[in-house]
Amino acid sequence: MWGLYKTQPSFVLGFHGCDEETGRAVIAGERDLKPSENAYDWLGNGVYFWEGSPQRAWEWAQSVHKRRPQFLKSPFVVGAVIDLGQCFNLTDLGAAAELRMAFDLYKAAIQKEGLSMPENKGGTRDRLLRYLDRAVIEFMHQMRAQAPGQGGKPLAPYDTARAPFLEGDDLYPGAGLKAASHIQIAVRNPDCIKGYFLPRKS
Question: What pTM was computed for the model?
Answer without folding.
Answer: 0.89
